[in-house]
């Protein structure tokens, strides 16, 4: 299993809108080949920080989706959203064990 972890920190007061946008997301990625699931979490001690975790059967499936569908997946981002500069990061993981 391949895991992509995207993190970012919201700079303005739009955390509630961003969280709601994730709750209301159109599930565009759900039927992508190789997609397993997505989780969106927020640390209690950093309420403006969002962690987006996607699980894939393999890295290639993630890369194909990312290359071809990233723009449409971001279409629901609330207007006016500002991020803390250089806070957006993506890290990749291999699943070892449950």
Automatic annotation (TrEMBL):
Domain ABM per the UniProt entry, residue ranges: 2-92
Residues in the signal sequence: none
Keywords (A to Z) from UniProt: Monooxygenase, Oxidoreductase
Gene Ontology molecular function: monooxygenase activity
Keyword Oxidoreductase annotated: yes
Enzyme class name: oxidoreductase
Taxonomic superkingdom: Bacteria
Documented EC number(s): 1.14.-.-
Protein name: Antibiotic biosynthesis monooxygenase family protein
Organism in which the protein naturally occurs: Adhaeribacter terreus
């Amino acid at each position: 299993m391949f895991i992509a972890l995207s993190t970012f920190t919201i700079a303005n007061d739009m955390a509630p809108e961003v969280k709601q946008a994730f709750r209301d997301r159109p599930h565009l990625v759900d039927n992508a080949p190789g997609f397993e699931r997505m989780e969106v979490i927020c640390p209690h001690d950093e309420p403006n920080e969002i962690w987006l975790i996607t699980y894939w059967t393999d890295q290639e499936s993630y890369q194909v989706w990312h290359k071809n569908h990233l723009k449409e997946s971001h279409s629901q981002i609330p207007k006016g959203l500002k991020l803390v500069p250089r806070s957006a990061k993506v890290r990749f993981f291999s699943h070892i064990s449950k």
